[in-house]
Structures are given as structure tokens and as C-alpha cells.
Write a structure and sequence with these properties.
The chain contains 13 helices and 23 strands. The chain is α/β, with parallel strands linked by helices. The termini are close together. The structure holds flavin-adenine dinucleotide.
Length: 493
């Protein structure tokens, strides 16, 4: 008899949610992680732990954050983020391409899954600072993103690991799944490589939760297109598309936006892959408060088109498309106090100067005359009649520019000035496997269920297209991981 009922490939958030759900049903569960323990946890460990879910008001927040004091509640406007708002965001940012059934599962499953995680022992707290600024003594949350996990991504993965250990789930590190084992049509285990030796592990079912293919430079160039080999990977080096490849080898159907991905502006000199000591610190997400210019010194995108949560994941691609695949973000003294903490890390490509002319001299690779001309035009175009308010889409815009700025347009005219050089940092790929939304079971090319095979998280296609509402990656992995784990535990020999 096989030692395990369910084998889970990966040890990130989706994988552990699948593991907990399968274990709850009494299954004997094994989690396989190709990374060594110190680098385990995939992209989930790199996150800030920001997690999007539908809620009706402060009572829902209180249930998930019982440590919140009355005083904190008193000075905070959590607002609401209804299921309808979540649907609207998903459909709007994906240009109405998100799979309606997958999206419905995601949105309707988000709140119950948060409560389930909380009951399992995952702790949450409000994202003060990043998602709410204190204005007139009160915090107001915006952008549908309100809670993060304690200790960010590392805290989340450590908590998952501990919960798994306590409930009798086995985890094997430095163990790479290399292929699926089948008995007839049914998947009955995985072939693994550990310390250079191949072994077979049999089980009643397998859950693939091994992430996208963003760390596979050849696939990235093949599917996302020329130039993508030049992007930096923000997260784990271990998500090379193995799970997708293994499933395709046995005839799984592929789905979704294979040429699309989540990519952001990140430090131009960030390393090839993410660095766990820096976490998500290479990203540079405060561009809505300033402007971005390319090598010609010209603006190329509406930095204030929407809240940061709804633009950052698509602006990495726009930066990659600029000459020399880079841009500079410019801020003046009026708003540097609003810059996120990632602007203060040690490994940062930053210049500062008391005047714009001196700043221009220091901004490597930028046409000086073009930049100064662009700034003059921009400053002239700012509508100063409308007050600046970072907590709402304030409508403080530019007038008459070819590349408008729709909100938060402040003149850049008070020294000292700061500029940060950014390139494209890829987070994860959008294309992946086709699953049944109710069970997360993988479908074959005829859209029939593949017996014994389930998938969740980044490697599932059809959820995200073109863009992504911030904080949806973790909840996507949690909702479908939980579904996959529960369904995989029901498989009979
Ligand atoms: C810097 C950064 C910040 C982010 N911030 C946020 C945020 O705040 N909120 C949010 O919602 N999302 C965020 N994301 C996105 C989020 O990380 C992902 O969407 C989510 O964590 C994916 O979870 P997952 O379990 O599918 O994949 P992962 O967490 O990446 O897990 C995949 C696992 O599979 C393992 N693996 C791969 N191949 C094999 C194999 N062959 N055999 C065995 N194991 C294998 C990997 O080592 C890893 O453990 C961020 C991502 C990055 C990179």
C-alpha cells in the first residue's frame, strides 16, 4: 500500500492550503519542495503577505484581526470591499477575459477561505501605511486591499509549515518532482529527484502547486516574447514551469494568457532572481506620487491612471518596452515622506540633487535636454486648483499633455529632488493549466478530467489576463489550493 494518499508538488501558499485541506479529510499527505529548506516557500515567501478578499465592513476585519484595539478601530475607516467590487476589479483589469467560473470561485471563496486560514492559525493585520495614509487623524483604506499576514510572506510560510508539522503532514526539501506516474489514465504518483537519485512516490492523487514559469528564461522568451530574457525575476528561482511541463507531457490542456505576466518596476540593478534578505524591497511602487521618464527624458505612461494596486502589475512590461529597458522615477521634497519603505533599502539605484539641472546630470542614460523640457511642460500642465489627496483618486490631473497624469499630479519643483532607476521585474506568469473550477482537477485536451491530478496557484491559467489587482495571488492560491486539497483527498484507490 502507498504510504501517502496525496502528494503535493511545491511548498508555497497554494501547496500548504491544499495540504491542510487534504489532511482535514484524514488523508496522509506529503509535500515536496525542490528548494532547500532555507529557500523554501516559493514566491509566497517573497510577498508582503498582502491578501485581497471580499468583506462587508469592520466586523469582518475584526473577526480576522481579533488583536485590533478599540482605539485602532476608532481611527480607521476600513470601508467595504464587496464581492461585486472584487468581481468588477477582476473583470476590469483583465479586460473582461478572466474565466467567469474561476473568477466566481475566487471571489465567493475569498472570505470563507480567509476565515478558514484564520481558524488554522494564520494571523492577519491591517496594512497601515502602504494601503491607508493618516489624514486629519484618521486612516482610510483604499484599493480593496486591507489585510496582510503577520510577518509578511516569511511569516505566512513559517506559519503554514508549523501548522503542517503539527497536523502530521510530511515535507521533503531539496526534492524535485520530475514527472508524473500513471496507471492507465490515472495519475498515481510522481517521480522525484533527491540528491541526484530518481525515486518513485506513489499516492492516490497528486496536486501540482509548483508555480509559474517565470524563472525559466527560455520559456519566458518563447512564450512572453523577445526581450523578456532581460527581465529580472522578483521572486524564487525555483518556479521554472515543471508542474506545467509534467502535466502537458501526459496530455493536460493549457489555458489562459500565455504571453502575459505580472511584472513591475523594480530596481534596475536588482539581481537575476529575488533575494530573500531583501524580500519585495527591489520593487518601486510609489510612482503615482511622482513621474517616470525614459532614456529620452520623456514620460511614457499615466502614473496616476488608478490606485497603484491596479496599475503596478502591468507597468513592468511598459518599462521593458522603453529604450534600454529602463526608466527613472522622479520625486520632489513635497512627497518624499510618502515614499514606501522599499525606497530606503541599501541596495537602491538612487540619485539626489538640490536642483533639477543637477539631478539631470546624475541620471545615467537620460537625455538631459529632453528631460528638462519634459519637466517644464509637465509642471506647467498640472491643475493646481484640485487639492492633492493620496487616500482617494483625487482627480488632480494635468491638462493638455499627450501622456496625461489623471490623479495625484503634483508639480515637481521643490528640492531636494530624488530619482530612482527602475527596470522590469517579473513576478509570475499568467498562462498555465486548465482546471475544473469546482474541484481544481486538471483537464485533458478533450476537456475531460484527468483522474488523480489537481492543480492550484500560479500554474493555473485563465484567472489573470494583462493585469492583476494587487494581493490576488495569495488568495487565488489559498482558494484553489483548499479546493484541490479537499477534492484530492476524496480519490479512492
Ligand atoms: C516579490 C513578490 C511580492 C509579492 N507580493 C505579493 C503580495 O503581497 N500579495 C499577493 O497576493 N501576491 C504577491 N506576490 C505574488 C505571490 O507570491 C504569488 O502569486 C503566490 O505566492 C503564488 O503561490 P503559489 O503557491 O502558487 O506559488 P509559490 O509560492 O511560488 O510556490 C511554488 C512552490 O513550488 C516549488 N517547486 C517548483 N518546482 C518544483 C518541482 N519540480 N518539485 C517540487 N517543488 C517545486 C517551489 O520551490 C515553491 O515552493 C508577490 C510575488 C513576489 C515575487
Amino acid at each position: 500500500m502507498a504510504k501517502y494518499d496525496v502528494v503535493i508538488v511545491g511548498a508555497g501558499n497554494a501547496a500548504f492550503c491544499a495540504a491542510h485541506a487534504a489532511r482535514e479529510k484524514g488523508a496522509r499527505v506529503l509535500v515536496l519542495e525542490c528548494a532547500p529548506e532555507a529557500e523554501s516557500g516559493g514566491n509566497s515567501r517573497f510577498t508582503a503577505g498582502a491578501i485581497r478578499f471580499a468583506y462587508e465592513g469592520v466586523d469582518d476585519i475584526r473577526t480576522l484581526c481579533p488583536d485590533l484595539s478599540d482605539e485602532q478601530i476608532e481611527i480607521t475607516d476600513f470601508g467595504t470591499y464587496t464581492k461585486d467590487q472584487f468581481y468588477d476589479d477582476m473583470f476590469r483589469v483583465t479586460r473582461y477575459r478572466t474565466d467567469p467560473e474561476l473568477c466566481e470561485k475566487l471571489v465567493t471563496g475569498s472570505a470563507p477561505t480567509m476565515r478558514w486560514l484564520h481558524e488554522k492559525g494564520i494571523r492577519f493585520m491591517p496594512i497601515y501605511g502602504r494601503q491607508a495614509f493618516k489624514i486629519d487623524g484618521r486612516f482610510k483604506f483604499w484599493g480593496g486591499l486591507t489585510l496582510e499576514t503577520w510577518g509578511g510572506g516569511p511569516g505566512l510560510v513559517d506559519a503554514h509549515t508549523q501548522i503542517a508539522k503539527n497536523s502530521g503532514i510530511d515535507t521533503r526539501y531539496s526534492t524535485r518532482a520530475v514527472g508524473l506516474i500513471r496507471d492507465g489514465m490515472a495519475v498515481t504518483g510522481v517521480q522525484i529527484r533527491h540528491k541526484g537519485v530518481l525515486h518513485d512516490i506513489t499516492a492516490k492523487s497528486v496536486v501540482l502547486a509548483s508555480g509559474g514559469f517565470q524563472s525559466n528564461v527560455e520559456w519566458r522568451t518563447r512564450y512572453l516574447g523577445p526581450g523578456w530574457e532581460l527581465a529580472k525575476v522578483r521572486g524564487t528561482r525555483f518556479n521554472t514551469g515543471d508542474g506545467i511541463r509534467m502535466a502537458m507531457e501526459i496530455g493536460a490542456s493549457t489555458y489562459g494568457n500565455w504571453s502575459g505576466c505580472h511584472a513591475v518596476g523594480c530596481d534596475n540593478n536588482a539581481p537575476e532572481f529575488g533575494d530573500l534578505n531583501v524580500g519585495d524591497g527591489f520593487q518601486k511602487h510609489s510612482y503615482p506620487w511622482g513621474i517616470m521618464v525614459n532614456a529620452h527624458g520623456r514620460r511614457f505612461v499615466d502614473e496616476g491612471a488608478d490606485f497603484r494596486n491596479y496599475t503596478y502589475a502591468k507597468y513592468g512590461r511598459v518599462i521593458l518596452e522603453q529604450p534600454d529597458q529602463m526608466a527613472w522615477q522622479i520625486f520632489d521634497a513635497k512627497i518624499t515622506h510618502l515614499l514606501r519603505d522599499e525606497y530606503r533599502i541599501k541596495m537602491v539605484t538612487k540619485v539626489s540633487a538640490p536642483t533639477l539641472e543637477e539631478l539631470a546630470d546624475k541620471m545615467e542614460g537620460v537625455d538631459r535636454a529632453g528631460f528638462l523640457d519634459e519637466l517644464a511642460q509637465y509642471n506647467e500642465a498640472v491643475n493646481t486648483e484640485i487639492p492633492f489627496d493620496p487616500n482617494v483618486k483625487d482627480g488632480r490631473c494635468t491638462n493638455g499633455l499627450v501622456v496625461p497624469k489623471s490623479n495625484w499630479a503634483n508639480q515637481i519643483n521643490e528640492g531636494p529632488f530624488e530619482a530612482y532607476q527602475v527596470g522590469c521585474g517579473i513576478t509570475f506568469t499568467f498562462g498555465g493549466l486548465r482546471i475544473d473550477p469546482n474541484t481544481a482537477q486538471v483537464l485533458d485536451q478533450g476537456h475531460d478530467l484527468i483522474p488523480g491530478l489537481y492543480a492550484a496557484g500560479e500554474l493555473v491559467g485563465g484567472v489573470f489576463y494583462f493585469n492583476y489587482p494587487g494581493g490576488t495571488g495569495l488568495i487565488n492560491g489559498a482558494v484553489f489550493g483548499r479546493i484541490a486539497g479537499a477534492a484530492s483527498a476524496e480519490v479512492k484507490e
